[in-house]
Amino acid sequence: MKSILVTGGAGFIGANLVEHLIKSNHNCKIVVIDALTYAGDVHNLNRVKNARNFKFVHGNICDRGLIERVFQHYLITDVIHLAAESHVDNSISHPDVFIETNVKGTFTLLDVAYKYWMEKPFVFKHGFEESRFLHVSTDEVYGTLGETGLFTEETAYAPNSPYSASKASSDLIVRSYHHTYGMNTVITNCSNNYGPKQHDEKLIPTVIRKALAGEHIPIYGDGKNIRDWLYVLDHCKGIEVAFFKGKSGEVYNIGGENERNNNYIAGQICEILDTLKPLENKSYKDLISYVEDRAGHDFRYAIDATKIETNLGWKADENFESGILKTVQWYLEKYQ
Ligand code: NAD
């Protein structure tokens, strides 16, 4: 039986992933470690907290002594690493914590895992090579695109924000542990996620929350920045397939071919709310207002997911329009 350490499991993607893995009956123990920063919420794990094969540890991935104890106590065989500072705006105002968690934290986990798995393969009754470290990363490491083109796994790294630079650094450290020490690593670079349990600070929850409160819905710049949106459960299924079937040392881009700009997203949400919770004599669209653009705002991200689709058989189930309807319905319940 695998004993998988999932870092950042109380966050948006982590909590959705843990729920999905436990539902999918993989015969694994799932140990979540999470520092419960402002972005983490232990209640995100309510649906799995009583599962026989689930454990929660409150702690910081930069705390080497704690990570070593967790490996020893739970006989950790694999890691799926999601813990990170994840909000680009915060990285512009407070880059230091991004370097600490995303760079030093990733290094600490990797180094503990490497030494533990090297020394203790007999504990797991399988070789060092079988213990996998899957690192969850972002398409933002590739920088920005113009009107055309897609990010592939071969696209050169060109991060533009302290967030994406810290994620790019962590990807390179993971890469080095595969090439130097032979660790069984996989890196996934995914596009923008949306769905249940996302922190209020992010674009889609902000649009829904502000609309329901009757406040101005803030959109950066002219609203024409484009992201390739992926429903969070599709991302979780991509991580799952990369973890169980991916090849050691490989990188897989995950994206849903759902390029949409911020104007379209805010408009779609307003139209759904106009139907589900109409206002008297006006549309939620009247609340949209434009605010000063984010510093260094990347224009467009878009993923070519051919590799994970062809080699591992993954494909997104949701398109943006079906996923956003489910998402708005979920937040309507949360904010009512
Ligand atoms: P999130 O901010 O919702 O959750 C991050 C979690 O990590 C939180 O629970 C937080 O408490 C925890 N955490 C932060 N610092 C920690 C530390 N030092 N030690 C232990 N736990 C810590 O983020 P998310 O959106 O769920 O993203 C998860 C991962 O996926 C990140 O690595 C992010 O870079 C990556 N990613 C996110 C997206 C996206 O659109 N959200 C897209 C691609 C990749």
What report would you give on this structure?
- The protein is an alpha/beta fold and 336 residues long.
- It has a single domain, classed as Rossmann fold (3-Layer(aba) Sandwich).
- It contains eleven helices and 13 strands.
- The strands form four sheets. The protein has a seven-stranded parallel beta sheet, sandwiched between helices. A two-stranded parallel ribbon has the order 7-10.
- α1 links the parallel β1 and β2.
- α1 crosses α8 and α7 packs across α11.
- The chain binds nicotinamide-adenine-dinucleotide.
For the structure shown, list the relevant keywords.
about 325 residues; alpha/beta; Rossmann fold; seven-stranded parallel beta sheet; two-stranded parallel ribbon; 13 strands; about 15% strand; binds nicotinamide-adenine-dinucleotide; dTDP-glucose 4,6-dehydratase; NAD
What layout of secondary structure does this protein have?
Blueprint: E1 2-7, H1 12-23, E2 28-34, E3 54-58, H2 64-74, E4 78-81, H3 88-93, H4 95-119, H5 121-124, E5 132-138, H6 162-181, E6 184-190, E7 193-194, H7 203-213, E8 217-220, E9 226-228, E10 230-231, H8 232-245, E11 251-254, E12 259-261, H9 262-276, E13 288-291, H10 306-312, H11 320-335
Parallel strand pairs: 1-2, 1-4, 2-3, 4-5, 5-6, 6-11, 7-10, 8-13
Antiparallel strand pairs: 9-12
Helix pairs in contact: 1-8, 2-4, 4-6, 7-9, 7-11, 9-11
Nicotinamide-adenine-dinucleotide binds next to helix 1, helix 4 and strand 5.
